[in-house]
Design a protein that fits this description.
The complex is a heterodimer.
Chain A (H helix, E strand, L loop, with lengths): L1 E4 L8 E4 L5 E2 L4 H12 L2 E2 L2 E6 L6 E6 L3 E2 L3 H9 L2 E2 L8 E3 L9 E3 L6
Chain B lengths: L1 E7 L3 H10 L6 E4 L15 E3 L8 E2 H14 L4 E2 L3 E7 L3 E7 L3 E12 L3 E3 L2 H4 L9 E3 H11 L6 E5 L3 H12 L3 E7 L8 H8 L6 E3 L1 E7 L6 E6 L12 E3 L3 E4 L3 E3 L31 E3 L10 H20 L8 E3 L1 E4 L1 E5 L2 E3 L7 E7 L6 E7 L2 E8 L8 E5 L10 E7 L3
Parallel strand pairs in B: 1-2, 1-8, 2-5, 8-19, 10-17, 11-12, 11-17, 12-13, 21-28
Antiparallel strand pairs in B: 3-4, 6-7, 7-8, 9-18, 14-15, 15-16, 20-23, 22-24, 24-27, 25-26, 25-28
Helix pairs in contact in B: 1-2, 1-7, 4-5, 5-6
The chains are: A alpha+beta, B alpha/beta.
């Protein structure tokens, strides 16, 4: 039996999943989907910053193109420590393709013109 | 410098207000004290913004950029790096501003929209005893140092207050390599969104101490340790429950207050509950032509609601400039009862009651199920059931003039449904 709190909506149901993967405690269908995914392949969006070549704006905010596996968060952070984004850069630009073979890209979330 | 409408603040609220008040026949000038538009959104690099306005989940800078692009495309005049010093009202508004290029000068405007956001309650605001070392700061300041300037304010962190900013910073500092020792919350429940408790604390095994507060701070020059204690139901610390953490930074996430203090020279009626202006359903203060919106009016849970409210404020300011002569006003306060703690707008002008409007409210008690009743003259005119109500979550209800009876004051009551 595994327990967790549902994060799909603000109600925050306390869920439990038994050994035959049946979800209990959910008040709607979305909680069931969340609970199974959270057990099988838990993912999170990662948002952070990277350094830039801009004189005015030293940091560029970035995100993962899709949620990545929870266990990869710190490895990706480490990888981004040494990365420097060249300006100009536009919001939505892909800065790193397929980071650490996760099939996920690192995307700029802000435009820096100079 | 002359303009029809002067918008003060270039964050989410100001951008939305300027965009909706901008019109062929109406001139708008936006004043922003920072060097960039976007306000606080630029440092809120996490995602979760825009679900209501854009139906997708954006980061703060992405959300800001959508409005900045539109604002720039419309070539709306604006002044950056410019601070408002004072606002006076003669016939029109006189706004004294200052910037490095031009020094002190005055803007004349027919209407003013305050979209100045909010500020964080500091250590002084909650009176924590102990030493006064460096390293004790509001969580949003630490967020700015980290996300805009690139400085991590400490390696060992404790956080007081489980509001969303505190939770978001717990995760952010952890990802950047700091050790977050814990989060203390004086209430028996968190004021943050449940999803943030899970994603920001549980994911990184950061303990949350409910019914705890910081009761001592030690450090000669830099912070060396904080002590927390459990509190009883009256919030008094309980002896013998002390826990001490050796940390070099204490982040405070203990509340946000609308930032309208610098406008004290203009005497609009204020609300004790919101710490901002009393407004009518048009976001207009007791001073004709002075509008307030966004977090400067009341602190919103979602930026999407800041945008929506500010769009309306901009629209109403435009209407005011186009048609300054209005019907006789008939202002009635919105009364509250039951578990309603605060309501905005605080007054309704029954003299201008053509269109539906929204009442935003917060409750004083966490409820599994609640019922909201709108009363007039002792009679219920509307009822709405809520599955989940909490003090940290703002709710709103749309009021349609067609179901109101005459100009009897509106009373908003929330009661708990106990099963």
């Amino acid at each position: 039996m595994k327990t967790m709190i549902c994060i799909v909506c603000p109600v925050g149901c306390h869920l439990s999943v038994d050994d035959s993967m049946v979800v209990h405690g959910n008040r709607c269908k979305r909680g069931e989907v969340y609970a199974i995914k959270e057990l099988q392949y838990p993912t999170r969006m990662l948002t952070t910053t990277v350094r830039t070549t801009s004189r005015e704006i030293p940091l560029l905010s970035v995100k993962t193109s899709d949620p990545i596996h929870k266990s990869k968060l710190f490895e990706v952070m480490k990888e981004l420590k040494t990365f420097v984004a060249n300006v100009p850069v536009a919001c939505g630009d892909i800065l790193i393709h397929n980071i650490l073979d996760t099939e996920i890209d690192i995307v700029a979330t802000r435009t820096i013109e100079k | 410098m002359k303009t029809d409408i002067c918008v003060i603040g270039g964050g989410a609220g100001g951008l939305a207000a300027a965009l909706s008040s901008n019109d062929d026949g109406v001139s708008v000038l936006l004043v922003e004290r920072e060097g960039h538009l976007g306000g606080i959104l630029n440092q809120c690099i996490h995602n979760g913004f825009g679900l209501e306005v854009f139906k997708e989940e954006l980061t703060g800078p992405e959300y800001a950029e959508r409005f900045i692009k539109e604002f720039e495309a419309k070539k709306i005049p604006h002044l950056l790096n410019t601070t408002v010093i004072d606002i006076r009202k003669t016939k029109d508004f006189l706004i004294d501003v200052s910037n490095e290029a031009n020094g002190l000068f005055t803007i004349e405007a027919k209407a003013v929209i305050l979209a100045t956001g909010c500020y964080e309650r500091t250590r002084g605001g909650i009176s924590i005893p102990g030493d006064r070392p460096r390293g004790v700061m509001p969580a949003g300041s630490a967020q700015r140092y980290l996300n805009i300037d690139g400085h991590l304010v400490g390696k060992n962190i404790f956080i007081l207050g489980s509001g969303d900013i505190g939770l978001i910073m717990a995760r952010r500092m952890t990802l950047e390599g700091a050790h977050v020792h814990g989060v203390a919350e004086i209430m028996p429940y968190s004021n943050g969104l449940t999803r943030n408790i899970v994603q920001c604390l549980h994911d990184f095994d950061i303990p949350l101490y409910l019914s705890h507060t910081v009761t001592d701070i030690k450090g000669k020059d830099i912070l060396e340790s904080v002590t927390i204690q459990e509190v009883d139901s009256e919030f008094h610390p309980i002896g013998g429950t002390e826990k001490t953490f050796e940390v070099d930074a204490l982040l405070l996430s203990v509340g946000l207050l609308p930032d309208v203090h610098m406008f004290e020279s203009i005497p609009f009626e204020k609300s004790q509950e919101t710490k901002s202006a009393v407004v009518n359903q048009f976001c207009e203060t007791s001073i004709e032509g002075l509008f307030v919106c966004g977090n400067a009016l009341h602190v919103h849970d979602l930026v999407d609601w800041v945008t929506k409210e500010s769009q309306k404020a901009g629209h109403f300011a435009k209407q005011f400039v186009k048609n300054p002569v209005r019907g006789k006003s008939n202002l009635k306060p919105v009364e509250t009862g039951g578990f309603v703690r605060v309501v905005v707008p605080q007054k309704i002008d029954f003299g201008q009651m053509e269109n539906p409007f929204e009442l935003s409210f917060r409750v004083s008690k966490k409820m599994e199920e609640g019922i909201l009743r709108i009363e007039q003259n002792g009679k219920t005119v509307r009822e709405k059931r809520y599955k989940h109500l909490a003090p940290a979550e703002m709710e709103s209800i749309r009021i349609d003039p067609s179901f109101l009876s005459g100009d009897h004051p509106i009373r908003l009551i929330v009661e708990e449904v106990v099963k």
